[in-house]
């Protein structure tokens, strides 16, 4: 059972990466982006098309990352130009419309048939105390930790981080003080798009490589972000890894295994109930 749980680290690491993107956008620009995974999936399919046409793998991956970066920046530009003063509910609803648009265009361009996905890391494993840890899991975990640490350092130690924090807390005042609000907003969205593409590329070989299926990976990413209360990158990473471990453990239980990729819903429900319970306690005190 322990080995089965460890096998879930690959999925958990990807949920953590997507969760970090969700938290980044929520903290910086106040949006819950339901199109986050779909942006990455579109870039991944660009990679597959390029690779099928005999492009070098590195060039194909670069093309996909640039595509997702551009899509993320496009959505960020729309948000910054037309919805900068809108409420969280309105801006999040716009991402739903964008999700539907990406799914429609993606299925029209790439079709609905699964495609073979190249493995960027390989199939090697590391033996630790009799347990087998896939190299892919270590790469994803390392990427998530470096990303979270890098973002935290950026926000705390650089002028750009000061601008981003000002944009998140007082956007109108920050813009009046000369902070390039629209450019920063587009940049944050673009970076999140590139990260999503990388995450989808890493997990796609172990999942059904279909556009709608992979686009729904934003949901366990949202569950991971919820466990981080939409503000803590370390807790989001732990939440994503925890969901992955639960999925892996469930795969060893025949009664639960067919539903293991929906267990994020129970985690999200439990987190919401716990948060609500805490608020009731606080009100009672």
TrEMBL record:
Per the record's keyword annotation, is GTP-binding included, yes or no? Answer: no
What is the topology of this protein in the membrane according to its UniProt annotation? Multi-pass membrane protein
Signal peptide as annotated in the record: none
List the residue ranges forming a coiled coil, or say none: none
Can you provide one Gene Ontology molecular function annotated for this UniProt record? Answer: transmembrane transporter activity
Q: Which UniProt keywords apply?
A: Amino-acid transport, Cell membrane, Membrane, Transmembrane, Transmembrane helix, Transport
According to the UniProt record, one GO cellular component term is:
plasma membrane
Q: Name one GO biological process term.
A: amino acid transport
The membrane spanning regions, by residue number, are: 6-26, 31-51, 57-82, 94-111, 131-155, 176-205, 211-230, 235-253, 259-275
Q: Where in the cell is it found?
A: Cell membrane
Family annotation (InterPro entries)? ABC_transp_permease (IPR001851), BCAA_transport_permease (IPR052157)
Q: Tell me, in one coarse class, where this protein mainly resides.
A: membrane
Similarity comment: Belongs to the binding-protein-dependent transport system permease family. LivHM subfamily.
Can you say what this protein is called? Inner-membrane translocator
């Amino acid at each position: 059972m322990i080995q089965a749980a460890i096998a879930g680290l690959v999925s958990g690491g990807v949920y953590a990466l997507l969760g970090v993107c969700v938290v980044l956008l929520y903290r910086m620009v106040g949006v819950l982006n339901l199109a986050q995974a779909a942006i990455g999936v579109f870039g991944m399919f660009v990679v597959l098309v390029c690779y099928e046409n005999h492009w070098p793998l590195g060039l194909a991956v670069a093309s996909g990352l640039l595509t997702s970066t551009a899509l993320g920046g496009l959505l960020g530009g729309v948000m910054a130009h037309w919805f900068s003063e809108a409420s969280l509910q309105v801006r999040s609803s716009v991402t739903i419309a964008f999700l539907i648009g990406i799914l429609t265009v993606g299925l029209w361009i790439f079709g609905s048939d699964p495609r073979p996905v190249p493995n960027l890391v390989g199939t090697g494993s590391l033996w630790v105390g009799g347990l087998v840890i896939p190299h892919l899991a270590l790469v994803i975990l390392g990427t998530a930790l470096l990303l979270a640490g890098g973002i935290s350092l950026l926000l705390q130690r650089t002028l750009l981080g000061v601008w981003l924090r000002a944009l998140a807390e007082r956007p109108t005042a920050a813009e009046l003080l000369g902070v390039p609000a629209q450019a920063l907003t587009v940049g944050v969205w673009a970076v999140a798009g590139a990260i999503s593409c990388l995450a989808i590329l890493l997990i796609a070989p172990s999942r059904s490589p279909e556009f709608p299926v992979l686009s729904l990976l934003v949901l366990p990413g949202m569950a991971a972000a919820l466990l981080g209360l939409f503000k803590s990158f370390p807790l989001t990473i732990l939440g994503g890894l925890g969901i992955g471990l639960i999925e892996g453990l469930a795969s060893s239980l025949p009664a639960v295994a067919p539903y293991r990729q929906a267990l994020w819903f129970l985690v999200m429900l439990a987190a919401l109930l716990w948060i609500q319970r805490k608020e009731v306690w606080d009100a009672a005190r």
